[in-house]
Amino acid sequence: MAFSDFDHLMMHRALDLARLGTGYARPNPLVGCVITHEGRIIGEGWHRQYGGPHAEVNAVQSTTESQLLAGSRVYVTLEPCSHFGKTPPCADLLIEKQVAEVVVCNLDPNPLVAGQGLQKLRDAGIRVETGLLEAEGRWLNRRFFTFQEQERPYVVLKWAETADGYLAGPYFQPVPISGELSRVAVHQWRAEEQAILVGTRTALHDNPHLNVREWPGQSPLRLVIDKNLSLPPTHHLFDGSQPTVVYTYRERAAREGVDFVMLSEAEDLFPQILQSLARRNVQSVLVEGGPTVLSSLLKDGLWDEARVIRAPKRLGGGVPAPHLGLAGLHEQFSLGEDEVFIYHRNY
Question: Is residue 297 annotated as involved in ligand binding?
């Protein structure tokens, strides 16, 4: 089918609505919905909160002209669900409201849906069209699609480096590198991901909180690699303020707010961590260091996106930052005096 300019406009609107659920809908995908009648929007909504009503439900409830729902045209960014989860199937709702047509951006790869939602609509006599702005929808829900198709979280690497290419001072001495705007942006990035990971040295030398303080949203699940359980129990990671997982080669019983996951020394470290996160239904992880962790993930190709903050400060020596060059550079922009480089591995 050849989609019209109006169709494109409505799906762009649905994608914009879907983005409003960022950081709140997880681990569910971001979904937006627009309902039109004779070329006019009569309802719209998005998935606002995990466990809450889906986008189609919110769109239907938003209309003040419910008599127009029968015969309406619905634009939705992801295939309507066909199964009972925390909420009833959205496909059933659209059938009940007797909509005439549903235009879908992306099919849902979740085996619980996987075309069944569209088939249910077609069986009810509703016309279904798919693939409108498909690439944009996949990018919006890249975490969800990576998790469903590769059975691992979407991995975002992040580091700040000086103009002469260092992450820290000599002997891993912590040094403030990025500016205030970049620090706020990092807290926004934390709010957008389900988990945040650091290695032993970063946890030891920086003693980070790994929470969201300068941006509205939920703090991520904290993850730390501590193979030999050498980190001081007084560090912020063990303060119980948010759930924390420690990956280790030593057995240790869980305590309040902290779970210890024992890994095998005979197997590669990071595939084990990613498998462990997948079992927890964690669909994305932000990796904030240190250099050994970052370099290992880059070397093994176990990353999807890298966000590099380059500040004008120079150190003249210290711990070198990983080097990506221009391969995969997707975007570059300024935050105050800092330059931010966004790399994509596959998209």
Answer: no
